[in-house]
Amino acid sequence: MKSINILSGKSVFIKIVVFPYFFAFLLLCCCIGIINNSMIIQKIIFSIIVFTFIFPYLIWLIMINKFIRIIHKNNNEGKYIISMIYCIIYILFAPFIFQTYQGSDLIITLLVFHFLAMISSLYVIFHIAKKICTIEYKREVKISDCIGTFVLLSLYPVGVFHIQKRLNKINPKNK
Q1: What does the alpha-carbon distance between residue 49 and residue 2 come to, in Å, rounded to a whole number?
Q2: Are 49 and 58 within 8 A, CB to CB?
Q3: Is 150 exposed, middle or buried (0-12, 13-18, 19+ CB in 10 A)?
Q4: 119 pLDDT band (50/70/90 cuts)?
Q5: Which residues are within 8 A (CB) of 162 and not within 5 positions of it... i.e. 6 or more apart?
Q6: CA gap 162, 158 in Å, rounded
Q7: Where are the beta strands (DSSP E) in the chain?
Q8: 9-68: per-residue pLDDT in tens?
Q9: What does the alpha-carbon distance between residue 2 and residue 111 come to, in Å, rounded to a whole number?
C-alpha cells in the first residue's frame, strides 16, 4: 500500500498560499453582496480592516526591507518597489472602486485588481524572505531554502514573532 504525502510541494503551496487569498477575496465579495445597500457600513468595515491589519503589516515589511538593505548591499529593488507601490495604491483606492462600479461589473473589476494585488503582495513577501535567507546562509539561496520564511512572513500575526527573532540575530548591533 502506497502512502500519500499530504504535505507535498503543490498541495502545500495551494493550502498555504492560494486558499487564504482566495477566501479573502470570497469574503470581500460576500461582504459586498450582503451590505451592498449601505456604503457607510462598507467604508467602516474596510477602514477597520485596513488600519488594524493591512497597514501595520505593510509598514513592517517595508521596515524589514530597509533593515536588510543596510546589511545586504544588493540594490536589486525595482520589482519590489513597484509591487509595494501597487499594494499600497490598491488599498487606498479600493473604496473608490466600490463606489464606481456596481453588481457584476464590481466583481469583475475587483477580480482583476485583486489578482494583481495578490501577485504583488506575494512577490513582496518572497523578495523579503529570499533576502533574509541570503543573509542568514551567506550564499545565494534557492526557492526551497526560503519557503519556510515565506510562509512565516505570509502568516502575519504568528510569523512576526519568529521572523523578528531571526532579524534580531542577524542585526550586527546585537553581536
Answers
A1: 45
A2: no
A3: buried
A4: very high
A5: 152
A6: 8
A7: none
A8: 444 445 445 555 666 666 666 666 555 556 666 666 677 677 777 778 888 888 888 888
A9: 40
- pTM attached to this predicted model: 0.70
Residue owning grid cell 479573502:
24
C-alpha cell at 33: 453582496
Ranges of each domain in the chain: 19-174
- Average pLDDT along the chain: 75
Give the Å distances, CA to CA, from 2 to 9, 10, 11. 18, 19, 18
The rounded distance, in Å, linking the Cα atoms of 49 and 103 is 22
Closest of 80, 78, 88 to residue 130, by C-alpha: 80
Residue whose C-alpha is closest to residue 68's, from 129, 121, 120, 126: 129
**pLDDT one-digit tens code per residue, 153-164:** 888 777 888 888
- CB-CB contact of 118 with 131 (8 Å): no
* pLDDT (tens digit per residue) in 84-112: 899 888 888 877 776 676 677 777 777 88
DSSP 8-state symbol, 172? G
Residue 170 burial by Cβ neighbours in a 10 Å radius (0-12, 13-18, 19+): middle
